[in-house]
Amino acid sequence: MILIGERINGMFKDIREAILNKDPEPIRYWAKRQYENCAAYLDINTGPTVDPKDQPAVMEWLVKIAQETVPLPCCIDSTNPEAIEAGLAVHKGKAMINSTSADQWKMDIYFPMAKKYNAAIIGLAMNEKGVPKSAADRVALAMEIVVNADAHGIPMEDLYIDPLMLPCNVAQDHGPEVLEAIRQIKTLADPSPRTTLGLSNASQRCTNRHLINRTFLIMCMAAGLDSAIADLEDQELLDAVAAANILLNKDIYCDSFLKTFRQR
Predict the structure, then answer these.
(1) Smallest Cα–Cα separation from 4: which of 141, 218, 181, 195?
(2) pLDDT tens string 150-202
(3) Residue range 92-136, pLDDT digits in tens
């Protein structure tokens, strides 16, 4: 399970204020916290309040601060292609692009960018019509993403398909469809594309958010999920992932499996 820390995002008040004040300390704090909590990537997002013309410079600053603080790659997250490329240009090591949809014009921007910078990339199983309801429609869009990635020479191990879970309080019937989509996406190519999920979307505006997130993540792991963008402050979520890795035969059992998982 590849865990991507969600916390360096301008949607959070402290990060938004850090960006406005050019204060690197909150960025450093959350980079360290997520590194200590098993992050494999740091999701870096300027947030919606930054002026589009300023986003490339802000993204460059965020990526530099994060990578000066901890030895982790970044998942560069923006709706602005110029901001994503600015982050990629200063990134050390193999970055991840978050993300392209299945719209052809977006894939024509982001897949060449991923190829140019040798970056992994997340593909969202949606298009301009929105997020489909059924597993079949999600998988059809995922197939379009797979075909386009292959045409641009993107290895399947660098492609992460997100079947997109909506909040369960407004789209409860999407949960089983997402689980089935994950299973089917793993059959679309050989080797198969990887799968990911914006986990916190499942519980937005719900009570007991951590419980919902933990439960859904383990269900998705059993269906074949490879990674998740998640709140890594939830220690019980990390424990659940460690236990699921044992039960799914992904890690070798030892009595100290919780400690071992955190030491990797």
Answers:
(1) 195
(2) 999 999 999 999 999 999 999 999 999 999 999 999 999 999 999 999 999 99
(3) 999 999 999 999 999 999 999 999 999 999 999 999 999 999 999
How far apart, in whole angstroms, are the C-alpha atoms of residue 27 and residue 40?
16
On the 0-12 / 13-18 / 19+ scale of CB atoms within 10 A, 127 is: middle
- Helical ranges in 5-151 per DSSP H: 13-21, 25-36, 55-69, 81-90, 104-117, 135-151
DSSP 102: S
How is residue 263 written in tokens?
A: 């030491």
**What residues does 3 pair with on adjacent strands?**
228
DSSP 8-state assignment for residue 58? H
Among residues 156, 200, 211, 202, the alpha carbon closest in space to that of 179 is found at 202
Listed residue (21, 103, 112, 36) closest to 69, CA to CA: 36
CA 130 to chain centre: 19
Torsion of CA 170, 141, 1, 206, to 10 degrees: -10
Q: Is the overall model pTM greater than 0.85, yes or no?
A: yes
